[in-house]
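A favour, since you know our structure tokens better than I do. It will help me judge whether the discrete encoding reads sensibly. The space below this message is yours for that.
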Amino acid sequence: MRIVHVADSFPPDVGGIERQVEALALAQRKDGHDVSVITAVNKDGAQDQDQDLDVHRGLRTRWLTIAFPSLNHSMVAEVLDRGDVDVVHAHFTVASPIAIYVARAASKRGIPVAVTVHSVWWKVASAHRFVSAVFFGPSLMRVVFSGVSTMIAGHIKRVYPRCGAVSVVPNLVDTQWWSPTTPSLHRAGDPDFRVVLVGRLKKRKHIDEFIEIMSRVKAKVPAGTAVSVSIVGAGPRHDNLVQQIDDLGLSEWIDLLGHRTPEQIRDLLHDADLFVAPSRQEAFGIAALEARSAGVPVVGYNFTGLVDFVDSGVEGLLVDDADDMVDSLAKLLVDAARVEQLKKSTRARRPSVTFEDAMRATYDFYERAKRELGGR
């Protein structure tokens, strides 16, 4: 197939969506497909990770992270009109002007358009409708929709109740690469409980709320309970979080490790007892699936994308709110036997979402787009 991906964000911008679009394009090219990428992100002459990847970048004119589609009209037309395109795969977040613009341009040309939504939409439904209307008018695009999780698929149906069926196309995670190959040398509570969190130090990841939660947990467990919390990631909130940790007296419990390579994160997870996913806006949870694949029980919220791959009570715990997370962590951090049982059952089960599952779902989604929308 000739596949064109379009995403407002793409490397060298850093984030889960950027990683996913690049990984999917590279995997499809490895499968033998002709793959191109259209993005609003220019990079001032830097080289792509893989120079063979056909990336078409917008002009440098952006307002915050939003590009102006009309300035990239010629580039978009050149990509879409260069030979027959079998499918355009548009990746939507909250505000995706370039992705929406290319989806509409492809739809007008009779090219099947498959849209995947990567972000929580329901609470920002008005913002998404506003962006679409301001940039492109009130008419609906002729596309098929998917979400990266069942939760996001539900959001799409609520925002666009007449959009038809909504597929689920999970993010790509090489679960086999993350899986442990040897038994863990560490046991919970011997000599400490090891908790890991991985994420960009940005406000929407709610790491400040997690630190507050750990302060409340510390007040509920017996004095002297040994806990080691490793927070992996870099970002603009670093200094604020350091100050918060000091102010709450959690310096002996929590370390900000900064950036780590995937290999270093995998080694850290293989000796961890629990992984915490504190974001209440987790559309999928890439880091959480990586941890679950590494055999680490995941603690997160039951209204996020984690429900697709964390069996609560078996592969971790999914909680209702911050109070529930405090109570759950406080109980686990004094119950080594319970934590070890969760680790054992997590390691024993194959993740319910794998790389192969995600690739199969993606290709099935394309076939649905071609079947329902037709070709040129």
